[in-house]
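## retry 2 of 3
previous attempt timed out at serialization; input unchanged, resubmitting
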Amino acid sequence: MRSKWIEHQGKQIFFQDFSGIDLDKSDIIKDELVNVQKIVTSQPEDSILILADFRGTTISKNLMDVMQASSSKTKKFVHKTAVLGVTGTKRILANMLMSLTGQKLSIFENEEEAKEWLVQD
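## retry succeeded, writing output
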């Protein structure tokens, strides 16, 4: 599993690492989402800070169903989500995901800015 817990300013952030995965490796993303879902749903509701990294990742509509299902199952456990590497078509898909699941995602270009935003109350 690529995803892991990291710490920033004394707070735990669950770093979901989907970076550098191309469309031909969509099973890697699906497997990662299954593992991430197990960890997230084991936490208290509205408690998790998530940093999801999609830099250098190719995502298409065929993964949207899997991502939507995962987001729907984990949404109530997540307090805030910051996302990296969501531009162009990925931004359109992220907006679609937000409208389908109701889960808000804040999109950042810089990892430090994303972490800072996550730990702010």
